[in-house]
Amino acid sequence: MKSTGIVRKVDELGRVVLPIELRRTLDIAEKDALEIYVDHDQIILKKYKPNKACQITGDVSDHNLSLADGKIVLSPEGAEEIIGTLQNYVENSKSST
């Protein structure tokens, strides 16, 4: 683990401010969700990344493919289904012209 040399106090409501430089470096924007982990006596904050569920099959896996800035998520099976559908579409559109 790398020290940043940054020290912040916890306020009366239990809040800690993350410095802008750190947020920029880690691509943490306002309203982004952070996951909180505990490892013995350490608190670890990690930018929350929701499970990548395939939009075709519903399968959740870290191996799923994310396209269009995360707007489309496909499992290998879902990708095969999309490829088949697209191939049929192209073949049918060629024969109708």
From TrEMBL:
One of its GO terms (biological process) is sporulation resulting in formation of a cellular spore. It comes from the Bacteria. GO terms for molecular function: DNA binding; identical protein binding. SMART domains: SpoVT_AbrB. Keywords: Activator, DNA-binding, Repressor, Sporulation, Transcription, Transcription regulation. The keyword Cell membrane does not apply. InterPro entries: AbrB_C, B_subtilis_Trans_State_Reg, SpoVT-AbrB_dom, SpoVT-AbrB_sf. Residues 5-50 form the SpoVT-AbrB domain. PANTHER family: PTHR36432, TRANSITION STATE REGULATOR ABH-RELATED. This is Transcriptional pleiotropic regulator of transition state genes. The lineage of its organism: Bacteria, Bacillati, Bacillota, Bacilli, Bacillales.
